[in-house]
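YM 10:42: Serine endoprotease sequence, as discussed on the call
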Amino acid sequence: MRRSSACTALLFGLTAAFAGQAAFAQVLYLPTERQTTGRRVRSAFKETASPAGSWTVEVRRGKTQVALGVVVSPKGLVLTKLSQVRPGGGRPAQLASTKDSSAPAALKCLLPGGKLADATIVATDPETDLALLKVDVDGLKSTEWGKDFDPRLGRWVVTPSTGGVVSTVGIVSAQSRKIPAEKVSGVLGVQLDREGGTARIMQVFDDSGAKAAGLKPGDLITRCDDNEIRDGISLITRLRQMKPGEEVTLGVRREEKTETLKVTLTHPFGVFLSQFAQQNRMGTELSERTDGYEEVFSHDGHVDPDECGGPLLDLNGRVIGINIARAGRTETLALPVSAVEKAIERLQAQVKAPSTNVSTEGKAN
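YM 10:58: structure's back
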């Protein structure tokens, strides 16, 4: 009798537990329209974002959006994100000119009012990853910067797009701080042939991306993404530009056959850090540059890499920063106004006294 009562109690407890889990799952689920990028949520902030349509700019390479920007001078100066607009920035496969696949498409700005104008990079500030573009249009309305915003945790922020449309909303999730440059590169987890100089694999390490992808000793790597690999040095040089958690597509010659394998790069210091890096990217395209900033704060609004360079607003519609990087699955970095204004001063000084270090496309000579 006691056992029967105990079983009944146990079953009741399990049923209640499962019911609680189901109820909990229902509480967590939100319809798309009620998420921060959803229509109903965005519509609640439309009056906040509307004025930003007067000075928010869409930056394109050819027909592809690569960034947003803001007007900082009525004489046609636009501030935007450097690493997205320089040649090779953005999404390279989509940005090539139709006449010459090796040349980048022309840089253009979709201005307030709908005019599409040619643009050139006239100044760069690598410290903040900002650039000044010049369009031959006068009479543009300049951005008005908010001066006294305190990026305390939990404060609402709004990201507008062109036309003053709300792109996303979020809350401040980390206060202003320095983010040092991250110098750790992703690794395949293999040992290459040192004597022959080729990119032939001699050993595949356990718990590595190479092992998981099926690479084997004796495989010869001939391509890495769109790059031809002629020797071990060219492969290592390419991989040093990539971070743990990123995926590469390798062309592999195995005996007489050529195969294509996708490999997720791992962290050189261990499996846990590799998994963390991959999870931080999961389902999200991150910005090319996410570190090396002297002062940034974070919010959880979903800003894609090609939406960086644009304004971030407080609930009063004041510009309190520039979205500078998509840094994680739930993190966007923003430069505070104080850092942006200092960068603008440095950029405008370059325009007044042009340097041979900057070409019209912003490349070092």
